Amino acid sequence: MNVIKYSCAIVLALVVLYACKKDDDDGGATAVPPRDRGEQQITDDAALQDYLRTHFYTLEDVFVNNDAIAEYQIAKLDTIADANIGEQSILDSPLLITKKITRNDVEYTLYILNLNQGGGAHQPTFADSTLVTYQGELLYKPKSSNKIFDSAVNPVWFDLVSVVEGFRESLVDFKGASSFVENSDGTVTHTGQGNLVVFMPSGLAYFNEARPSIPAYSPLIFNIQLYKVNQADHDRDGLPSYLEDIDGDRLVLDVNDDTDQDGTPDYIDNDDDRDGTLTKDEITINDSNNDGFITPDEITFYDDDGDGIKNHLDADDRDLKNE
């Protein structure tokens, strides 16, 4: 047994030495720097506009429960050619809107096909949780993979903090369903849900980070149906997560949203200023209409020392307010 053990060790050592020698001979792997974001945006926007100019859409029913009732509709996208030559392009559709987003000193454009604004009472913020169905696809089919790279035909909950920015920033302008019915088989039928298609540049998607079915620098298309919105309070400190965006850039994950600089952004930190008093005990919440959605006017903030910094963000103020 010892002979086998030592023999294996020698073979392993030789393999490692050979691998190291090969790396030395090749000079090691060379990291490819990402492309310039401004230049890539110009390229992506041209590709998106060309796609929108040369494609049209038709609404297609989606049946999930094997009955005669469609759960929702999805926009089927096709090329304007041959028998379809007279179709109106997506670019010329009166339902197409644009939205500008500036990131890293680059202005990006989202193209959003507003199929249904949604009839619900609430629309999500950039940090909320949403119940959606969706289909993601590339502009054009690659040779080695499918054009459609992801989908959910049954509703799934998405935390908007963790999705790509183009998905998040398009969805926040829509509302959930106006009503729903729980069926006898346990399924739910929604009515009047938000329905949109977003065409996004790679800079608001994965940019230079390739995925198994998504090449680097790929503009993306998402068909999205929005059914419900839950206001998120990730750290359960009483403050909705969107109100913990300290620098106002609609992102809650960045270092500028970490008041005490402890490496934990405020939206997942239940003691934002690390003064030993939990955030929930330094503010007072009153959901006056009992709708589960807290608005700024339903929060009482305190500033005991009058220095212009709210107690929950000021390590000098630590009095309990909800005893």
From TrEMBL:
What molecular functions are annotated in GO for this chain? peptidyl-prolyl cis-trans isomerase activity
Q: Which InterPro entries match?
A: EF_Hand_1_Ca_BS, PPIase_dom_sf, PPIase_FKBP_dom
Does this entry carry the keyword NADP?
A: no
Instruction: List the Gene3D superfamilies.
Output: 3.10.50.40
So which residues are the signal peptide here? none
Q: What is this protein called?
A: peptidylprolyl isomerase
Q: Which reaction does it catalyse?
A: [protein]-peptidylproline (omega=180) = [protein]-peptidylproline (omega=0)
Tell me the superkingdom of the source: Bacteria
Question: What residue spans carry the Acidic residues bias annotation?
Answer: 256-274
Q: What class of enzyme is it?
A: isomerase
Q: Which residues form the PPIase FKBP-type domain?
A: 127-230
Residue ranges of region Disordered? 256-275, 280-299, 304-323
User: Which organism encodes this protein?
Assistant: Aquimarina atlantica
Entry keywords, A to Z: Isomerase, Rotamase
Q: What is its EC number?
A: 5.2.1.8
